[in-house]
Amino acid sequence: MKASKIVYKPVGLVLGVMSGVLAGAVFKQVWKVAGHDEDAPDATDEERGWREILIAATLQGAIFAAVKAMVDRGGATAVRRLTGTWPG
């Protein structure tokens, strides 16, 4: 296994947790603006309609994917700076 992959393993785990927390916070703020509500609907929320639930789920998924990609790419770039090779 290349040194960059070994270095990236623990970095990737920490970044994964951080990206989840960051994405959750970003989604919460976006939903407040877009949904005009404090909390996004749960799939089992009887008070909310299909449209609102599916929009919230789609938006949340897109935000989580974008934040994860940004954090992962930044982590890989940092590992390359430290080791001289890409951890892929």
Automatic annotation (TrEMBL):
Keyword entries, A-Z: Membrane, Transmembrane, Transmembrane helix
Pfam family, one: DUF4235
Transmembrane as UniProt keyword: yes
Sequence intervals crossing the membrane: 7-27, 53-71
InterPro entries in the cross-refs: DUF4235
Protein name: DUF4235 domain-containing protein
